[in-house]
């Protein structure tokens, strides 16, 4: 192999690739993957030092892996619309309606002594029905967002209220419980020490990562989040992309619904309501740009671990879980402050137009300038 | 003569008034009790807390921001007031004063963080909401305060008279709600700072270049919402005779939906107090009417969702229509 002397063009190439790398890392959002990893390491270190006998153990790790998947899948369902410059406030309502539908099939329609192949068939049918309902919800939401041109926060506020109302109306606020052991095994059995639900979540997260970074659709989702209008002018059917975004989000909600059913062994209209805002918190902590266009699933994955490490650590220290919640909020604000006041990072999110004063949610559908 | 399309897809207020009239006619035909004074007055009282909160949220929305933390603020101020009143014998004025100060302070924290961190206000308030709530529950152990002093838990009636349908009481919540609506309308329409809030929400960059104090506008909007959250917290406690730290948790998106239905937008600079008040009237009538006609109260969520979707569909088409007109003119 011949080693060429460093020529001018090579130097140029090196420089530009170096520049690409820097810009790339800036674009990763809040404080970059490496920053998040460092923060996670600091947290683990602090908890391990203060509880050397209880925290750094395999059982703690396993307990955390049991708890991450449900919030993780819901956060994925939130992150995809956020990257596209939108939001899906209906994720919990979507998951709960699917969970209720599946639970209704398994508890009211299916005979309780069903087993063997019949049981597998019933399970498959229930899961398929739940998936179908989520696909319908996703398609309707996506089409509404695409054709109305109204900000998704409003559309999904409407679908959220509607779906929650539907679930409440059909169940009268009751919960359905008692599912086959095969289903609950997802959330209480392990495979080689790893909870099945966590393995499922890891596979889905990897798939989402590949989808967002390496496929045409994924790149387009980032593009419409960055600038919807210019994406349209560059020949992309942005409406189709928007429908896909909410379809993907709803399908992730279905997976979350399955995991939640397995974990709680019940389904209801008001389950996990408090997760809604925490999914936004996790996504943004993980470096997803709330204005859309940027965000990495890897960052979200690390952020979820950070939140779980804090929650589990506080739990082991017998500190109130409410303080863990408060510290999640504090950490989000701190990360935002670091991003704001670190000179090297300040440029990054400001490349798209002037944002000297941040409005609530300047999505892709900001009103046109006043006609004069 | 305005074309039908402009009437239908025109101002939110017109659409709401039309919807209210249609609903009122249908409901009064199907239930004789609906259009009685006592029913309507009870209805107003039941929605007083929502209206007060919606007025504050409306101001923040006009300023181009959004606030998720106001129910946490309302709960925290309510609890502080109740704690001071029961443990230290604070009078009505001093308890309310302390609660109002806390409300304004918590609102100002949102404004300062939004301003200095330059982060979307929804993120800031999601973070502060979890902080406020978590600290409140942590310090109170989610314990209710039942023994509110008489000045707080006794029903204060300003005016009572009997009508054909029973005794009608104009109570404190109604009066406070009317004062808040009138004050907000005055603030937003007739004062300099109110117009500045509209200008800032419409175009922050332009507003700051013509010399509007950007931080001052945000402090006022979020501080005002904090103040109204304290007022709403007091009224809520007086209606249920106790202070419960979690009583208003999860209400934030409902109140937001009311303000949106009333014509406020998320990009700021648009909306009127009248529209928000009409939205409350519409939803209240719908819920009450359905109760009277015998429709299950569980059905109400579905209707609210449909109302929001119909409303944004109309706004969406109206905006597209306006954009098209603009495009033609500018060619």
Query: Over all CA atoms, what is the radius of gyration of chain B?
Result: 21 Å
Uncertain stretches of chain B: none
Give the terminus-to-terminus CA distance of chain A: 67 Å
Question: What kind of sheet is the major sheet of chain A?
Answer: 2 strands, antiparallel
The H-and-E topology of chain B, N to C, reads as HHHHHHHHEEHHHHHHH
Beta content of chain B comes to: under 5%
Which spans of chain A have pLDDT < 50 for at least 5 consecutive residues? 25-30, 345-372
Give me the number of helical elements of chain B.
15
* Chain pair forming the biggest interface: A-B, 61 and 70 residues
- Strand share of the residues of chain A? under 5%
Characterise the protein shown here.
- The complex is a heterodimer of chains A (372) and B (331).
- In chain A, a hairpin with a 2-residue loop joins strand 2 (190-191) and strand 3 (194-195).
- The longest helix of chain A is centred in the middle third of the chain and has 33 residues, at 116-148.
- Chain A is an all-alpha fold and 372 residues long.
- Chain A contains 15 helices and four strands.
- Chain A has helices spanning 8-27, 32-50, 58-83, 91-109, 116-148, 152-171, 181-188, 196-214, 216-226, 228-233, 238-264, 275-285, 297-316, 321-341, 343-346, and strands at residues 176-177, 190-191, 194-195, 266-267.
- In chain B, helix 4 runs antiparallel to helix 12, helix 5 runs parallel beside helix 7 and helix 6 (92-117) packs across helix 7 (121-140).
- Chain B has 15 helices and two strands.
- Chain B is globular and about 60 Å long.
- Chain B has one domain.
- With 331 residues, chain B is mainly α.
- The relative contact order of chain B is 0.18.
- Classes of the chains: A mainly alpha (372), B mainly alpha (331).
- At the A-B interface, helix 5, helix 6, helix 12 and helix 14 of A face helix 6, helix 7, helix 10, helix 11 and helix 13 of B.
